[in-house]
Predict the structure.
Amino acid sequence: MSYLINSSKPISSVHQLQSEGGQYIELAEAGYQIPIVWLMFFNEDDFIESKIEYMDGEGNLHYDTISLPCTTVKKAKENIENSHRFFTELFQEPEIAIGYLDKTIALFDELEYEYLILDASEYFYMNIDDAEWHLFRNAFLRNEKAKRFIFEYSGYDEAYLPYPVEEFYSNPHLDDYDRMNNSTALNPAFSDPSYRIRYPHETASSALSKADTASNKKWWQFWKSE
């Protein structure tokens, strides 16, 4: 799993945030991949060393360090808004991909905390040899060298066009696996703001109260632009 996190401290792993008394909100999660649009929130110089913990196949707990991206919400917004030209260079037919980029920008609303982090530690220790963890930084170069890493980490296959973003969100009967895969690789996967995971964890009563006073929108309407 990979996680896009809004945090109170400039710490880029959930484990370290919890151990150092940080607060955070999980904006989105993705299984076995890192969505391309998440990468656009950060630049190569946004990496900081983070402490992580993970369990091996035999149930043994391990501790390690990995460099992961962290920046301010303000800078993250500027970074992704300046990504259109790079998307044009990155994709063979960029119009569809840019639709996902614009959707991500539209959904990236006001956040509670100052920092945005991308905790991809679970993805890396489950899928990538630790000798190659340092290569993650290459995905943020915003040049031709970055392309291989962006597509590898997201699972994007250039041989297929993704579905247009509005079709992907609105049509429950899409059946082309390869196109679905590429749409998922581009999808920001933001969760409904009313039900996002928070740390420290809220009590059931406070979570219910917050849900009652939240917007009257249905959950799927958070995926649509105004």
